[in-house]
Write a structure and sequence with these properties.
With about 325 residues, the protein is α+β, with helices and mostly antiparallel strands. The chain has 7 helices and 17 strands.
């Protein structure tokens, strides 16, 4: 329909993770079962740079809204949507009975605040909280991320009530003073991977008796079926995603809560492959092979104690 005459040159199949982790992914083309040259693919994230707005503000001389008391103020941050309406992006806590509140420091992701668009209008609204849900408007203020970037400690803006602004002598319904403001860059997963970050996949399997007898079809360790058991499904599902980001494809795999031959002592950390000095398994298939062999050679026991494995993995991460 585009009017372009294209000739079939071949195809290739790959995972998104392979493209992301390799920088430039190169793969041969399959041309009807024959070699058809190669293709190079580069991945690029399309969303804008993500940042987190760290903000601490206080209110000064807000309007009194409660008959028996002062006000119970809170703030809402709304972003303007495509159709011109406003959608809630963040809400602060309520501070009771004060006209000069200081709210807790807040963190707002700029994607949520304004879709990473520096010119998207942001509406800051101050309400007086009421227990029956009929919260009273104190005032509002319009800004943009571009303007927020210019804020400094002491920056002050006025809250205006739209129904009062035409009244003679009306100035504002209080002020908001910036006490602390910072826009901090948040790196994405793709940026970490392209920057050289590698993920390590470590498996820990529960061999306690609560899983049920492996010979019983209701057991989580049941293997005598064409349908993979829940442990196999979990290892496969997670492993197939992680493996594209792990360069050596060597995965430490442990078990806990079983009696091991020949002494039949309970162990809360043992290598699935039977080699305490090197618990690494080659690839996801290697983990599954070691697991299947292990389940047929140990006795499920207990109690459930995964802390030795968690502590060991933490040490591995530090090293």
């Amino acid at each position: 329909s585009s009017g372009i005459n294209a000739e079939y040159g071949g195809k290739c199949e790959c995972h998104l993770g392979q493209i992301v982790s390799s920088g430039t992914y190169k793969h041969s083309l399959d041309y009807n079962g024959k070699a058809g040259g190669s293709i190079s693919i580069q991945g690029q994230e399309q969303s804008g740079m993500q940042r987190t707005l760290k903000l601490c503000v206080k209110g000064v001389k807000l309007d009194k809204k409660d008959f028996f008391g002062k006000s119970d103020p809170y703030l809402e941050f709304h972003r303007q949507t495509i159709d011109g309406s406003f959608a809630l992006a963040h809400r602060t806590e309520v501070i009771k009975n004060t006209l000069n509140p200081t709210w807790k420091p807040m963190k707002i992701n700029t994607r949520r605040l304004c879709d990473n668009n520096a010119d998207t209008e942001i509406k800051i609204i101050c309400y007086d909280w009421d227990s029956d849900g009929s919260h009273d408007l104190i005032g509002e203020y319009y800004t943009t991320l571009a303007s927020i970037e210019q804020w400094r400690q002491g920056t002050t803006f006025q809250l205006v009530h739209p129904k009062k602004k035409e009244k003679r002598g009306y100035r504002n319904s209080g002020e908001i003073v910036v006490e602390q403001v910072e826009l901090k860059r948040e790196f994405t997963f793709l940026e970490y991977i392209q920057g050289g970050c590698l993920l390590n996949f470590v498996v820990g399997i529960d061999f306690t008796g609560s899983n049920g007898d492996p010979r019983d079809p209701s057991s989580l360790h049941y293997l005598m079926s064409s349908t993979p058991n829940q442990y196999t499904q979990a290892i496969t599902a997670v492993g197939n995603v992680i493996q594209d980001y792990d360069a050596d494809q060597l995965y430490p795999a442990f078990g806990f809560g079983a009696r091991l031959p020949p002494t039949w002592q309970v162990s809360h950390q043992f290598s699935l492959n039977g080699n305490p000095a090197d618990p690494n398994c080659q690839g996801i298939d290697g983990i599954l092979a070691a697991y299947h062999q292990c389940i047929n050679s140990v006795q499920l026991y207990g109690p459930t104690n995964a802390s030795p494995i968690i502590g060991n993995v933490a040490r591995m991460a530090r090293d």
